[in-house]
């Protein structure tokens, strides 16, 4: 506070000069002709003339004394009228108020927080105030490691995809060697898709000399053997080859904050969760990678992709199966609010589960070197979205020294936290005066006008 008062001395001098209790201008006393002539008179004149000039000088002095007395009486009368007028007491009150507001900066608008006890346990018995220290960070890290140990569910790790089985909607390309009329009935000059065999909704397809054949649920090798067995009645030792020209029967659904959301087909090559996410693309601005939801056969699995990658076992170990639904949530409700004396106050969204206090302040442009006091508070518990009872806690960081950011780099903020940088006392007082000056100027102008109107009558 003493430093703030010293810094405010120039501002105080300005406001004191502007709102000082000025009684009025004192008119400069004019010298009478006799007084001037007496000062200018000198020797060399006859005695008679000097006697006459002496009489005039005495008369001029007496007149000057009478004029000074009348002026003093006028000043006293004007002073009494001035102190009885509104402008007198208004300016006096303003001067006293300025001195009081400077000596007590808590009157100025702004927010700050003080410890109600030497240990800083709570403020007003409602909010718990905790200082960010190395010991506190060590305890916080131990609790975080004990709680946030993420492991992939065993059901996901144990699943291994089976060979691809044909289903309705697939298009097969069947080759019968030495028999182009069976391989390309539309003509060899046509594209491969024109000669494909579409599996019907009931899981069957028609092939010459074989007839209607049930292929749904069979592997490619099983379908090839069935077609070869049907052709063996008409062709000796038929050479048949079957391939899938278009995969359409088995898909996984990608939803949420993907660049290309929608279904992705499963092919003969097993598809992992990491590959599916890579094909869909992640919207890095709106996605929340800390809570990817995988739904499979009525079971819901929540996956933290950030923890998976940092732990060395990524999403490449999770294989997808037909009917899986992968939802990447948006981070609209996962925000930390940076306010106060920072360059760019804003709401920061979480894209991963880890965001430090240093990163939050850095994305907001850092502390304002001119207006910031250097105290940073992290308010937690006011926006508790889990629905559980939690005591509001305020974490305090003394960031006057750059070394404090070594602690801030190890302090993890959470969604819903409010990061507030407090203002310096002189900043709050200056803002208070900027709000007060328009009102005091209007009152002073009104009182001055009223005073002169009353005295002009």
Protein architecture, described:
It contains 14 helices and 16 strands. It is an alpha+beta fold. It folds into four domains: 2-103 and 432-455, no CATH class; 128-134 and 333-423, Outer membrane lipoprotein wza fold like, CATH 3.10.560.10; 154-161 and 250-328, Outer membrane lipoprotein wza domain like (Outer membrane lipoprotein wza fold like), CATH 3.10.560; 171-246, 2-Layer Sandwich (wza like fold), CATH 3.30.1950.10. Strands 1-15-14-16-12-13 form a six-stranded mixed beta sheet. The protein has a five-stranded mixed beta sheet with strand order 8-7-11-9-10, with helices on one face. Strands 3-2-6 form a three-stranded antiparallel beta sheet. α3 (33-40) crosses α4. Residues 18-43 and 116-121 have low confidence and may be disordered.
Short structural summary:
The protein has helices spanning 2-7, 9-18, 33-40, 47-84, 86-103, 134-147, 154-158, 180-183, 220-231, 273-280, 305-310, 357-363, 405-408, 425-455, and strands at residues 128-131, 171-176, 197-198, 204-207, 211-214, 240-246, 251-256, 262-265, 292-296, 299-303, 325-328, 335-340, 346-349, 372-380, 393-398, 418-423. It has 457 residues and is α+β, with helices and mostly antiparallel strands.
